# Entry
Amino acid sequence: MTYRHTTRYHLRAAFGALVLAALALPHPAPAAGAGHPETVCIECHSSLPDRLGAPVKLWRSSVHAENGISCNACHGGDPNDADDAMNRSKGFLGAPKETEVPAFCGRCHPGVMKDYLASAHGLALGKGGPNCVTCHGNHQVLKASIELINEKNCTRCHSFERARAIRDAMQQTESSIVGIDARIKGFQAEGVDTERLGKGLFAVRNRFHTLFHEVNVAQVKAESAQIDAELAKLDRDLRVIEEARARRKVAGGFAVAGMLLLALLCHLMKKSFD
Amino acid sequence: MLIKQMYDWIDLRLGAREIVKKQLTGYLLPARINEWYSLGSVLMVIFGLQVVTGMLLMVYYVPDPEKAFKSITFIMNEVPYGWLIRLCHAVGSNMMVAVLFLHMFSVLMMGSYKSPRELNWLTGFILFCLVQGISLTGYLAPWSQLSFWATTVATNSAAAIPVVGPYLVEFMRGGKLVGPPTLGRFFAIHVVVLPAVIAALVALHLFLLKRTGISRPPEGTKECRNPTPTGSYSYESHPGGVPFFPNYALQDLTSICIYIAAFLAVVFFAPNFLFTPDAFVPANAFLTPAHIKPEWYFLANYQTLKIFPSELLGLSVQVAAMTLLALLPFIDRSPERNPLKRPLFLTLAVGGILLWLGLTIWGHYS
Amino acid sequence: MANESRRKFLGACLAGATAVAVAGAGYPVLGYLAPRPGKVGADKLEFASGDIAAGEAKFFEYQGTSAVLVKTNAGALVALSAVCTHMGCIVQWEKDKQAFLCPCHAGHYSPDGAVTAGPPPKPLAKIPFSVAGGKITVG
# Structure
């Protein structure tokens, strides 16, 4: 009987196939999901035409909607009772005037409001300067990113030179921060104690975010340089961990190879007795 | 030689030569024995490794909800080679279940559960349940979000039992919800109770194995029937067969080395295979993470409970399946052991395995 | 016979490889269990002069072991190891007698650590210290 058709062969093949199948099972990954009940504002305005209904559609794709922040969070009023939803004595604020916009948004974003009011843009409020919604939009507010500093937005009032310089200085820092954040999260998922590094990055990131509403080019460049230095320190710490991990993998390679060699020796020894 | 003198000294007092001849060099196994028979010794090595790594972890681990997670972070980051011991223990527990499935598969295929080996199957089945129990109780020890909520989901399933269900759940948890009392009792069960019971059952399992004798493997398409029962006990011997020592002992060693190589490969190169990010966030009793799932070997159970509209029905179906599996030697009484000559069994077994695999994969993606 | 010599060779290789494997497994375990250095404590400790009154003794941990600071009635300061030189018990300060007594086997020491009675073979080890501007620095 040839080797291929023995029960022995079939059994060995089955063994191998099962092991391979087991190894192919993919790694579980959690997913996110959240649902919020609708406010009366949305319920009513979503069926209104033109100017009165358009904000709802815009709001639905916003970062505010994603996080359950509805109309009443900015415009006030009762979100559950249609009778009081637009009642001024119950806190309804209506649409803000141009100069009222920063205070409107600043109720939840006080830090940003402070930075903006201290900047050249803030000082020009009401005198032809931009307010929050000029760049961020009013209903379709998306998660803030460096993309907001672009030629289309900024050239509405002046040339793009200074804005470009600011953007270039910050782009580098932004991608460093994102990269370091990814590495820290990767290590955390491996059991590394990332508390100190995580806190360090959090502090640097907050410091960097206060720069977003600063329009003085020299100021931005100087702060960015300091922040880059902080990030370089974090990067060094992460590299130490990465190097240790690489050494572990090498040791692992030797260990696995060693065991396979032992298996081979045992097997050959066994054959010598057969 | 000194070794010969030491051997003689022991032989004079214990009759060592006689034991070696009877249990090792003179213990004959079927001539056509194959590699699948070595899975049992691989399982014993895995158990041994779990005990050793578990003992080492206990040197630094603190079973208190305030300190448990921190002590494991300490082991993973500060203690030299702590990460290695911890990962060996975590990966090893999954490997034990995987190799146990392979062992069960070979026993099913070769019909080694049939008369006169029913007791062996029963003790093995109980061991299977105990291994699931020790994995479940060990899972809570790190007191991470994953530990806490997976234990909540798992202990909740008993609530479907009529009359005593809710009380059983409270009894298991030591309270209405998973909390400090749960950690206390799970730790005691995981570290002392179950290892002792498992060790005792393994000893019984081995005794039964040796007392009955090793079964012959089925061959090709030939019939392979167990000897008809004669009405009195008889040992299944294999004259002209292969000595356990050194021949099959070396096969055992080869399988063990291959297992350790695969095991170390996972430990060093893919430990994250088994951890989700939730495993590294401390438990928060007030925040349930979005998608809590049990470990891979419980996914089929989890999915079954999700399919049936009534939890009691889902639970009963699983209890029925496990009971059928436990009583298999009493249901399948035909003496034929070659899987190719047992078409009904083969269909049901392969069907059952595919169903389990399907439920597991569905459970993973649902 | 070729088989015999092959077995001997394989046996030798196996023995060698097993020894390496055992060493490879044993080394991390030993490292894991070995007592860790590092957190023994700072080399120097500071106290305020007002912390300790005349005729009092203050016990503290210094470099991983027990130590004591004594201010005699005359105002003299001494820093000593509080570990009895007999069998390692921690000595106690007797305020009324202004002396150290070891509770284990009744070893007696004077305030500057010399053995006055009992089994201790050597005086209490002295620890260097300095006083500057209302601060006592031990170490």
